[in-house]
Write a structure and sequence with these properties.
The complex is a heterotetramer of chains A (102), B (513), C (212) and D (892).
Chain A: H1 5-25, H2 29-53, H3 59-89
Helix pairs in contact in A: 1-2, 2-3
Chain C: H1 3-24, H2 28-48, H3 52-77, H4 90-113, H5 131-141, H6 143-164, H7 202-211
Helix pairs in contact in C: 1-2, 2-3
Chain D: H1 2-7, H2 15-37, H3 39-67, E1 76-87, E2 97-106, H4 108-131, H5 138-157, H6 161-179, H7 186-216, H8 222-228, E3 235-239, H9 253-260, E4 263-266, H10 267-283, H11 291-294, H12 300-309, H13 314-321, H14 323-326, H15 330-351, H16 357-377, H17 381-409, H18 416-419, H19 433-447, H20 453-467, E5 469-470, E6 475-476, E7 485-486, H21 492-521, H22 551-560, H23 562-565, H24 587-602, H25 615-620, H26 625-628, E8 631-632, H27 640-667, H28 671-679, H29 681-688, H30 693-742, H31 747-766, E9 772-777, E10 782-787, E11 794-798, E12 816-820, E13 826-834, E14 840-848, H32 854-857, H33 864-870, H34 881-891
Antiparallel strand pairs in D: 1-2, 3-4, 5-8, 6-7, 9-10, 10-12, 11-13, 13-14
Helix pairs in contact in D: 2-3, 2-5, 3-4, 3-5, 4-5, 4-12, 4-17, 4-24, 5-6, 6-7, 7-10, 10-13, 10-15, 12-17, 13-17, 15-16, 15-21, 16-17, 16-20, 16-21, 17-19, 17-20, 17-24, 19-21, 19-24, 20-21, 20-27, 21-27, 28-29, 33-34
Classes of the chains: A mainly alpha (102), B mainly alpha (513), C mainly alpha (212), D mainly alpha (892).
Chain lengths: 102, 513, 212, 892
């Protein structure tokens, strides 16, 4: 079981789907950000396990490495925006920011 | 080696220029350190040098455009060394065309921002390095021939834009816009990443050409096993790409983000980010998903995009007609324009000639829309901005030059000859008719008629209405930089409209083979 | 049960459990802990997949930086980070519909991806996933994206600073001359007048500033 | 000169670009920034741009002269850029692709025109800088004027009809803007509207002509048209429009036959008549002339520049430009000459009784334009064009002089209409001698006093009207109907009639112009009485019948402006008269008058065939060389006796006209005119009412249009607006309203919609699609189906008419199926596609091969022998549907 790609794909897509649903249902921006991190992590897992399948080079792992870097950068900017929002509105609810609409 | 540098010159120019700009910002004279302007108002630390930094940024970006133009003249195919950076960056005429148009549009935005930010007391030096590096990301995105560089470039561009939206720190709208774009953008990027991982899993490649070739070779049992993965990858990739170009129903972020952002950033998003989004969409769909079984007229992505184009045009135009805010109307109109361009993309899936039409459309649209946002920000000064249609009432009489600029770019967006907007629509619909996509062409035509309504509405307010007594009216700001940017944009819009042949021959060379 | 399978099982449970914990817990600090669990689980799976280097990176960057950053921000925000009084049914409706659609899409995706036929991993050499191998991949073949990452990091740093840097003390709150001042310090459109922009109505804000 | 030649080679004569761009630039700067720049800067900008363009035009002209030594056509080209390529759809166009270039060219004809436009234009700009000095819209006025010069230059220098059309519309727009420059009253608004509508009729003609030229000649540039003009020599069926006349069956047989007999005209006639319709609109020929007199509501310099010197001659220019095409249709030329002559006479009679000096000049302009068309119509393009030139000088001078007079009259009268009424003038000679002298010079020219410019140009037109004839090609044959058109030959009496009308016009012209001059400058100044408290020292009515009415109005008018009047200085020498005196205008206004007056007198020497000095004529000769081959004209050397005879005729025409005017208005002080008016009140009223053309239009066309409009309004209100516009607008609005509900501002809602889209895309991708492309050929019975490819798709077909799937129930890779059906055979076609997830999709269709019967024959391709029976085409000519369809039906 632990030696087939299918089990890793299943695991990875389960984490991805959990992350996606978390993003969809939670109202706390911080948790939504963490859900996105979950999704990115599942992609990393998928890439590394596929690299285990395509062993010719290390592209999959390199890709995952870059995604880690991207995720870190994204979190930095995202948390900055959350902080700004918090300073201005005093809350971190994403569904409360509805000045811009229609 | 020198050939390689020449091939990468637009990217290198922006990278080095961005570094220099940051140095200038860090070690330049702290003009606003005291935190007071000449009017005695207290402002942010580090403020006051926006105009100079903006001018430097504009020079750097226009230099990038000049490098791109010279690279076009030299011909990237005559520089064999550029294949060293392939497939991560593919320096072909497609890339060079986009590099030019992105740098050019970025330069216009820099000029606008250099006037806008000091006027609105958000005189922040950080804007311009962000602008330059974000544009660098956009160029790299257009050049990316590999999923790795594609995602890094995409994030570089997007993170810069998120920050440029949220730059107005004291404003809840700005924060809200940045938040919405950031959350949904990251969500969509995660989809694209998952799709990329699946494609890697199916093919063992991360470069687009390799993926395309490997999918083309799939047959029989191997295909049966992996078809599901390819379909999921196609679906997620399409969603991610459609999000970036803000096609309905993946557009919901766009009006809010456009409205809340500082106006130069809005112009940047509408012009540059969307162009780069289309560049990557074209490259991914035609290179990685170019197999006849996915790029089929009966199934695969072309019918999906055709449906998206139709929904996009109708929904965006219907919504745009109901807006009270001109800025938000322009946001919806930019969504509608994505629909028109998608018509060309669908046509290109049947005949390669149509891709030239898409490129033509994108270039004309980018310059027109940046001009339109520029004219809109010209029309208002601090506290007296032009926001709603009411604000524009009687502008034609009070400030004819401003009204002329606004109407000129609106007319181009509406697609009236002899502007480039007309020829953009003309070539796209012509391309659709050439490949017998009559329905799409007709829908596009109907929508450009509907679209003309809300542009005309602005013209009617400017020239035929008087402001209600006591109603606040927009007071144009005075800035040579804005006038310069608008003049450059107007020359391009009118020039490309008067002699479209040169541009048409350029785009026909620039299309992906 | 082989040690490999044991590792896989434990790590999978950690991953899924942590992910569920992240998504379901009401307190963001617990969510962060759930995320940490998932990250460690995935790092373990990386070890199982012969990706030592990435496992290390995963722990270093994610656990050491990203989650710490989250926790830091949650601490900074204090109790308000979780204080989210629900307001109205519209938000609930949107989230219910979104969650439902997400669940359907999830089932859809998983059913498409996972086929009954299984493919075992091939046997790989010792160098697979070592620092050296990944390093060679990055620096010999993938130098261009690596250089691009520098641009990404610059943008991230400058952007984060630009957005989050506190403003000059005196100008932190813009002066509001009157409740109907237009534009970015107030409602753009008539329909927004009187609506809360920063938790208070403009009228309240005006009053408090007048008194101050 | 060599340097210039090197700098501007004939094939890429970029100097034209410079000439064009300067006025445009000035217009732009003045229009956008003029308000801020200030009066001086606007003046400087406007004047210098036009002067620079004038210098450019002079240089161009000198270069043309330098090239043109060999008597062949010299033309400099400037190809700015390629605008569009008109791609022919199928065989619709004679040539597959018609390139539309933004190209300009200059030759003797357009060079002369450009010289006049920039030269006279500059003088009028100079004049306006003083005339309009007090106007708040000064900058706007200059912007419009500069824009007008630009448009006019585009019109003249354009190398093709579309470019000319751009300029054509441009001058129309400027004229429209300038007519409505001062006033927003009803009267002027309706004047603008009238100009707009009548010009639209003309533009329609021009557009039709362009379409016909593309169809028959396949070119729109001058050279291409000249080269391909022989394609116009083919008959075109003009009646009946469709296959048959619908009501023919209801009529008696003989009448029905007469009605439904096909009529033909040559394509050249159609093109020329369409072009002439355009020319009529712009040059205000009878029928479409109603706008020009009303257009005089604009500022006087505008009337001088646009409505006298340049724009209204655009029609004549078009005729001369395409002279080679026009001479191919003697019938069209006869129409041109006839309408020209009639307009000349008609307008002259109206001018007899007008009192508003600008109205007199307006009708005289109409009359002179008629002259020009008369000249061009009889094939004497050179003479017609020469009259354009001289007319530009003397009419500009007259209008500017009139402006100067009005300017002077404003010292006393501030009412627009009264200050232009010659009954309030008289004796102005002593107040404004410069204006009077120059006005007199121009009067001499227009009246045809010997040796002035007008004498020579008019003289040549009259002579040509008598002697010159358009012969055209002998016969027109070929075409799709093997019809031979006999050439239309001008009847013998026609030339005589034209000559007589021209001569009569000349007499009338001399008369009414003399009346004008006498009324303005001679006698006593009659404007004194309208100053309040002024007592007439002579107490004697000066001009009989006209005196009483209007007195009160004048007084009232002056009351309003009383305080204004005191600003003007009072002349000490005339104490017994109250109020300010009229005064001479400043130098900016008189200098142009002197120059134009001089030109009016002496420009005739440019083309004085009578005394064998005709440099302009020789210069223009190559331009009209092609056209003159089809014109029977008198040889100069042989007929010089007749030249002198004709000259005497003009002199005789001028002399009695002037003499009669002198007798009537000076000797008898206008009494005979009043008596005549009293004796023939109806005639007088008829003439005063301008032949009641406007009323005629009102009664006929406008009423018909009105009732039509009522119907259209009804249709518009209920059908278009009610059902189409409102319903669709409602749908769009409602859609917007519904979609707005989703745009709640909540990120969660947005991501939910995103998920919805994702599911939609996913569903579409997963479900297989049995899309089939059908190629049905009912004629041969071969049917081909091809299914869309798709990822992991497998197919099974049932096309063989048997039960069950072809080749068993298994899915295969076959994507195409071809089969044959017999006539009337019916077959069920099925296709099933299996997708990657084993989901299937089905395509089913019942196919019937129809019987090839008569009704479908029309759409099936014809067999070769049927085709030959129907129509014989000359090579290179497209078939027209109107011709081929009935024939094809007949043979089957």
């Amino acid at each position: 079981m632990d030696t087939t790609i299918e089990s890793y794909m299943l695991l990875s897509s389960v984490i991805f789907v959990i992350g996606a649903i978390g993003f969809l249902v939670r109202r706390n921006v911080l948790v939504q950000l963490m859900s996105i991190e979950l999704m990115l992590n599942s992609v990393n897992l998928l890439l590394v396990s596929f690299n285990r399948l395509h062993t010719g080079n290390m592209v999959g792992q390199a890709f995952a490495f870059f995604i880690i870097a991207v995720a870190a950068a994204e979190v930095a900017v995202g948390l900055a925006i959350v902080l700004q929002l918090y300073r201005l509105r005093g809350a971190v609810n994403s569904d409360d920011a509805t000045t811009l609409r229609h | 080696m020198i050939n390689l540098f020449l091939g990468l010159s637009p990217i290198l120019a922006l990278g080095l220029g961005g570094m220099l700009l940051m140095l200038a910002e860090a070690f330049g004279s702290p003009a606003g350190a005291e935190g007071r302007t000449h009017t005695g108002e207290v402002v942010d630390a580090g403020a006051g040098r926006g105009t100079e930094l903006g001018l430097i940024a504009a020079v750097i970006l226009f230099a990038g455009a000049v490098f791109s133009a010279s690279l076009w003249l030299v011909g990237p195919e005559s520089l064999p060394e550029v294949s060293k950076v392939a497939p991560y960056l593919i320096i072909d005429r497609f890339t060079v065309f986009f590099a030019f148009s992105l740098c050019f549009g970025g330069g216009l935005v820099a000029l606008l921002a250099a006037a806008y930010l000091p006027e609105h007391k958000i005189d922040r030096g950080e804007f311009f390095p962000l602008l330059i590096f974000s544009t660098l990301g956009a160029i790299a995105l257009a050049a990316a021939g590999d999923l790795l560089s594609l995602f890094v470039a995409l994030e570089t561009m997007s993170l810069g834009v998120y920050a440029m939206i949220g730059l107005r720190r004291t404003n809840p709208r700005s924060a809200e816009a940045a938040l919405k774009y950031f959350l949904l953008g990251s969500f969509a990027a995660a989809f694209m990443l998952f799709a990329g991982a699946l494609l890697y899993g199916v093919t063992g490649h991360t470069d687009l050409a390799g993926i395309g070739a490997a999918i083309g070779e799939l047959k029989g049992a191997a295909l049966d096993e992996r078809a599901g993965m390819i379909l999921v990858a196609t679906m997620l990739m399409l969603v991610g790409l459609a999000f970036k170009i803000s096609a309905v129903p993946f557009h919901m972020w766009a009006p809010d983000a456009y409205e809340g952002a500082p106006t130069p950033t809005t112009g940047y998003m509408a012009g540059i980010v969307k162009s780069a989004g289309f560049a990557v969409l074209l490259r991914v769909l035609f290179v990685a998903f170019g197999d006849t079984r996915i790029m089929s007229w009966g199934s695969g992505w072309p019918p999906v995009l055709a449906a998206l184009a139709v929904i996009t045009m109708f929904a965006a135009n219907a919504m745009a007609g109901r807006q009270e805010s001109v800025k938000r109307m322009l946001a919806y109109s930019s969504i509608a324009h994505a629909g028109y361009a998608l018509v060309g993309v669908v046509a290109a899936s049947r005949g390669a000639e149509a891709m030239g039409a898409v490129l033509f459309y994108l270039f004309g649209y980018a310059v027109s829309t940046i001009g339109a946002f520029g004219a809109l920000l010209w029309a208002g000064r601090r506290g007296l901005e032009a926001v709603s249609y009411e604000d524009l009432a009687g502008l034609g009489r009070r400030h004819p030059a401003v009204a002329l600029a606004l109407s000129f770019f609106f007319v181009s967006l509406a697609g009236v000859p002899p502007t480039v907007g007309f020829f953009g629509k003309f070539t796209v619909f012509q391309a659709a008719i050439d490949v017998e996509l009559y329905g799409l062409a007709v829908v596009g035509l109907i929508n450009s008629v509907i679209g003309a309504y809300y542009y005309l509405k602005a013209l009617v307010y400017m020239y035929m209405r008087e402001p209600r007594t006591g109603a606040p009216i927009a007071q144009p700001m005075e800035s040579g930089l804005v006038i310069a940017a608008l003049a450059i944009a107007a020359v391009v819009v009118l020039g490309a409209g008067l002699c479209p042949d040169q541009l048409l021959s350029v785009v026909s060379q620039a299309k992906l083979n | 049960m082989t040690p490999g399978l044991l590792l896989f099982s434990v790590c999978s449970l950690l991953c899924v459990g942590g992910a569920l914990f992240t998504v379901l817990s009401a307190n963001p600090i617990r969510s962060a802990l759930g995320l940490l669990t998932t990250i460690f689980g995935i790092a373990g799976l990386f070890l199982r997949l012969n990706a030592e280097f990435l496992a290390a990176m995963q722990v270093l960057v994610y656990a050491g930086a990203v989650v710490i950053l989250f926790v830091f921000v949650i601490m900074l925000l204090g109790p308000t980070a979780k204080l989210i009084p629900a307001r109205g049914t519209r938000s609930f409706l949107a989230r219910a519909v979104g969650g439902g659609l997400g669940a359907i899409a999830g089932v859809f995706v998983i059913s498409l991806l996972v086929s009954t036929k299984e493919h075992a991993f091939p046997i790989v050499g010792k160098e697979h996933g070592t620092v050296e191998a990944v390093g060679r991949q990055i620096f010999e073949h993938g130098l261009v994206p690596f250089e691009l990452v520098t641009a990404l990091l610059i943008v991230a740093v400058v952007g984060a600073v630009a957005v989050a840097r506190t403003a000059h003390k005196k100008s932190e709150k813009p002066k509001i001359q009157n409740p109907t001042v237009r534009l970015f310090h107030g409602p753009l459109l008539a329909r927004d007048a009187g609506r809360p922009l920063d938790g208070r109505t403009l009228q309240e804000r005006y009053e408090s500033e007048k008194n101050a | 000169m060599e340097l210039l030649t090197q700098l501007f080679p004939a094939s890429h004569f970029s100097l034209l670009g410079l000439i064009l761009i300067l006025p445009l630039l000035a217009a732009f700067v003045n229009g956008v920034f003029g308000k801020r720049l200030g009066r001086e800067a606007v003046t400087l900008m406007g004047l210098s741009a036009i002067f620079a363009a004038f210098v450019g035009a002079v240089i161009t002209y000198l270069m043309l002269l330098g090239h043109g030594e060999h008597g062949e056509l010299v033309r400099f080209h400037f190809n700015a850029w390629r605008w569009l390529q008109l791609e022919g759809v199928g065989d619709a166009l004679a040539f597959r692709a018609v390139p539309l270039d933004v190209a300009f060219s200059v030759d003797a004809l357009s060079g002369t025109m450009a010289l006049v436009i920039t030269g006279v234009g500059f003088l009028i700009h100079l004049y306006s800088s003083s005339y309009m000095a007090e106007d708040p819209g000064y900058y706007r006025f200059f912007a419009y004027l500069n824009l007008f010069i630009f448009s006019m230059l585009v019109l003249v220098l354009g190398n093709s009809l579309p470019i000319l059309f751009v300029g054509w519309e441009g001058v129309g727009l400027c004229s429209y803007l300038l007519i409505g420059f001062w006033f927003s009253e009803d009267q002027n608004a309706s004047a603008g509207k009238k100009a707009f509508i009548t010009n639209r009729v003309g533009d329609f003609g021009l557009l039709v002509a362009m379409g016909l030229l593309v169809y028959y000649v396949g070119a729109l540039d001058w050279h291409g048209i000249e080269v391909g003009r022989n394609n116009l020599l083919q008959p075109v069926k003009v009646w009946p429009v469709a296959d048959s006349v619908p009501i023919a069956q209801l009529l008696p047989e003989s009448l029905a036959e007469a009605i439904s007999k096909p009529r033909y005209a040559s394509a050249a006639t159609l093109v020329c008549l369409a072009l002439f319709l355009g020319a009529m609109g712009k040059s205000a020929q009878f029928g479409l002339h109603v706008w020009l007199p009303d257009a005089m509501a604009g500022p006087t310099p505008v009337s001088a520049l646009i409505h006298a010197a340049t724009m209204v001659t655009a029609g004549v220019y078009l005729l001369c430009r395409l002279s080679a095409v026009f001479v191919m249709s003697p019938m069209a030329m006869a129409v041109v000459a006839g309408i020209g002559a009639f307009t000349a006479l008609f307008a002259a009679t109206i001018a007899l009784v007008q009192n508003d000096i600008k109205k007199v000049l307006a009708y005289s302009t109409l009359s002179q334009l008629g002259y020009m068309f008369l000249g061009a119509g009889v094939g004497a393009f050179e003479a017609g064009f020469f009259h354009v030139l001289t007319h530009a000088f003397f009419k500009a001078c007259l209008f500017l002089g009139a402006g100067s007079v009005i300017h002077a009259m404003h010292a006393r009268i501030h009412d627009t209409n009264d200050s232009q009424d010659m009954r309030n003038m008289g004796g102005l000679l002593k107040f404004m001698p410069a204006t009077a002298i120059t006005f007199a010079a121009a009067w001499a020219a227009i009246a045809g006093v010997p040796l002035t410019s007008g004498f020579f140009s008019k003289d040549e037109i009259l002579l040509m009207a008598l002697k010159s004839k358009v012969t055209g090609p002998a016969t027109i044959s070929g075409g799709q109907h093997r019809v031979v058109l006999e050439n239309f030959v001008w009847p013998e009496w026609y030339s005589g009639l034209l000559y007589a009308m021209g001569l009569l016009t000349a007499i009338l012209t001399a008369f009414y112009m003399s009346r004008l001059v006498i009324g303005i400058f001679l006698g006593e100044f009659r404007g004194w009485k309208i100053v309040p408290n002024w007592v007439d020292p002579h107490a004697q009515p000066a001009s009989g019948a006209h005196d009483d009415h209007g007195h009160d109005a004048h007084a009232a008018a002056h009351d309003e402006h009383d305080d204004h009047a005191h600003h003007h200085h009072e002349k000490p020498g005339v104490e017994h008269m109250e109020g300010p005196t009229p005064h001479e205008s400043p130098w900016q206004m008189t200098l142009p008058l002197w120059i134009l007056g001089g030109l009016s007198l002496f420009a005739g020497l440019l083309n004085a065939h009578l005394i064998h000095i005709a440099p302009l004529g020789h210069f223009l000769e190559p331009v009209f060389a092609e056209a003159s081959k089809s014109v029977e004209a008198p040889e100069e050397s042989v007929e010089s006796f007749k030249w002198i005879g004709a000259a005497i005729a003009v002199f005789i025409a001028a002399a009695p006209g002037i003499g009669l005017a002198w007798y009537t208005y000076v000797v008898k002080a206008g009494r005979p005119a009043a008596e005549a008016a009293a004796k023939f009140p109806r005639l007088h009223a008829f003439l005063s009412d301008k032949w009641r053309v406007d009323e005629f239009y009102k009664a006929t066309i406008l009423d018909i249009v009105d009732s039509l409009a009522d119907m259209c309004v009804w249709f518009d209100k209920w059908i278009v607006d009610g059902i189409l516009a409102r319903a669709s607008a409602f749908v769009i609005q409602a859609a917007g309203a519904i979609l707005r509900q989703f745009q709640t501002g909540r990120v969660q809602a947005y991501s939910a919609v995103l998920m919805f889209g994702l599911l939609g895309v996913g569903t579409y991708l997963v479900l297989p699609h049995a899309n089939v492309r059908e190629h049905f050929d009912h004629a041969s019975g071969v049917y081909k189906l091809s299914a869309a490819p798709g990822l992991g798709y497998k197919y099974r077909w049932d096309v063989d008419g048997q039960e069950g799937w072809d080749g068993g129930d298994k899915f295969g890779n076959r994507t195409e199926a071809t089969f044959q059906l017999k006539v009337d055979e019916e077959r069920v076609i099925r296709l099933e596609v299996e997708g990657p997830l084993l989901i299937t999709s089905r395509y089913e269709k019942i196919l019937v091969r129809p019987r090839p019967d008569a009704s479908s024959a029309a759409v099936t391709p014809q067999k070769p022998e049927e085709k030959s029976a129907a129509v014989q085409l000359p090579p290179g000519h497209p078939p027209t549907r109107a011709g081929s369809a009935p024939d094809a039906k007949g043979t089957l």
